[in-house]
Amino acid sequence: MRRIVILTGAGMSAESGISTFRSSDGLWENHRVEDVASPEGWEKDPELVLEFYNQRRKQLYEVEPNAAHKALAKLESGFTVNVITQNVDNLHERAGSSQVLHLHGELSKARSTVDPEYIIDLDHWELKYGDKCPKGGQLRPHIVWFGEEVPAMEEAVELVAMADILMVIGTSLQVYPAAGLLYYANSETKKYLIDPNATPAYNVENLTIIKDTAVNGLIPLVKELISK
Description:
By secondary structure, the protein is an alpha/beta fold. The protein has 2 domains: 1-18 and 65-104 and 150-228, TPP-binding domain (Rossmann fold), CATH 3.40.50; 19-62 and 107-143, SIR2/SIRT2 'Small Domain', CATH 3.30.1600.10. It is 29% helix and 21% strand. It is built from 8 helices and 11 strands. It has helices at 10-14, 33-36, 39-44, 46-60, 67-74, 91-95, 153-162, 214-227, and strands spanning 3-8, 27-28, 31-32, 80-85, 100-102, 105-112, 119-121, 139-143, 165-169, 190-194, 207-210. The protein is elongated and about 55 Å long. 37% of the residues are buried.
C-alpha cells in the first residue's frame, strides 16, 4: 500500500477556530513569546505559563475538527497515512487519523519537570501549580518550547523519506527544524504544498503548489487521490 505523509501547521487548525497564537506584533495572546513558550519563561513565572496553556487547552474543548482534518482521515481507506503535525491540538486524532506524530508536543498532556519519562493525559483542561508527578516534580505542559530539542524530529525525517506522496498543509515553512522536512523526501516523491501564502521559491522537485486554505485546497485533492 502506498504511503502518504502529511505535514500540517497552524493553518490546518485555523479553520476550526484555533488561534495561531503569534500575531503580527510578535505577541501570543498579548504575551511575549519568551514569557510563555521558553524554559526561561517557565523558570521566571511558572504560574503565568500554566495559565496561558490552560486557556489554550480550554479553547481546545470548545472546537471541533474541520473538513480538512476529516478528509485526511478518509485517506486511510486506501493508503498508509502518517500525519506529522506542528500543532499541539488533538484535532487530527478526533477526526479519525490513527497515526499522528506531534513535533511540538500535545496540549492535552502534561509531563514531569524531573522525570522525562513521566507523561500523562489530562482529563480536564486545568493544570495547576502544585500538581506533581510521583517523584515530586511539578507538572508542566507537554509542549516543546523555543530553545528545546524536538525529540520526534528523527522519526519525522524517517517517515518523510519513506513517503510516496508528501503533503504540506497550512504552514509557511518558517519554523525550523520542521521547515526542513520537505527536503528529506525523495526526488521522485509527488509533493503538494497547500497554503494561501505559499511561494514557489522552493528548490524541490515534483512540487505542486496550491495557494488556498486547508479545507478548500485539500478536499478536491483527497477526492482525486482516493478515486485513482
